[in-house]
Amino acid sequence: MAAQRGKRVTVPSALESTVSVVTGAAGGLGRAVVGALLARGDRVVAVDRIVGDAGEQPGLSWESADLTDAASVDELFARIIQDHGRMDVVVHTVGAFRGASIGESAQDDWPFLLDLNLTAAWWVSRAAARTMQPAGRGSIVHIGARNGVEALSGSAAYGVTKAALIHLTRVLDSELRRSGVRANAVVPGLIDTPANRAALSPETMARAVSPEAIAKVIAFLTGEDAAPVTGAVIPVYGTA
After folding, report:
1. Per annotation, catalytic residue among 120, 158, 162, 219
2. Span 33-80, pLDDT tens digits
3. What domains are defined for the chain?
């Protein structure tokens, strides 16, 4: 699917302003990350498959793209560079969850989760590396999952695809760190979302971490104070 230009808001900004790209920006975590990066003064390009009535804020523009399609991702990154002149941060929040053991999994669980949890991350990582490495700067953050670090039962395809995403982040680090580009992964456990609140008990959700708290970790990780940090896999489990 070819990418289509979403609703755009053009706001005069200093050329040196940080340009941050957030994928999955219409989701709960994505919106929190967008808010955190806008609050520190970034120009933010928010990306999702369907933009719709995304709303307008100073410093924010929206783009639509199918991130599981290589050509769509390459076109997206080319547009961002054309419109903003630079790209300093990429935070990839796209992902999906389905719970089932290996034996109980449905036939389409594996390809569905592989596409959303790994293939999209691969194309975004490739486009980010091709954009940032020649510039000699940049920060890439992927969103892993506790299931990708620990062998937990009941969500096999999800855990395996998230484990591969974490390894992708480590490979990115090994390839890019000498060029000045950093790659890190933030690894949530249970996130406080409406879907999780509907599915889980209040006692369980009392230990969940808010999207805004995770977004603050991501904002720090992509900022100047975290400049020495690369190749890290950072848990944000809370007390769950």
Report:
1. 158
2. 999 999 999 999 999 988 766 567 889 999 999 999 999 999 999 999
3. 19-236 (3.40.50.720)
Contacts of 56 (CB under 8 A, 6+ apart): 7, 9
Q: For residue 13, what pLDDT band results from cuts at 50, 70 and 90?
A: very low
Place of tokens 């793209």: 65
CA 76 to the chain's CA centroid: 15
Residue 51: what pLDDT?
A: 77
The residue type found at 229 is: V
| φ, ψ dihedrals at 163, nearest 5° | -65, -40
- What string of DSSP letters covers 132-190? HHHHT-EEEEEE--GGGTS--TTBHHHHHHHHHHHHHHHHHHHHHGGGTEEEEEEEESS
Give long-range contacts, CB 8 A cutoff, 24+ apart: 85-88. Answer: 85/15, 85/19, 86/19, 86/135, 87/19, 87/21, 87/128, 87/131, 87/132, 87/135, 87/138, 88/18, 88/19, 88/20, 88/137, 88/138, 88/139
Q: What is the pLDDT of residue 157?
A: 93
Residues 205 and 26: their CA atoms lie apart, in Å, by 22
pTM of the model: 0.90
Six token digits for residue 167:
């390894």
Q: Please name every residue paired with 23 in a beta bridge, in sequence order, or none if there are none.
A: 47, 92
Mean pLDDT score across all residues of the chain: 90
Does 158 participate in catalysis according to the annotation?
yes
Tokens linked to 53: 């009535």
Q: Is 5 exposed, middle or buried (0-12, 13-18, 19+ CB in 10 A)?
A: middle
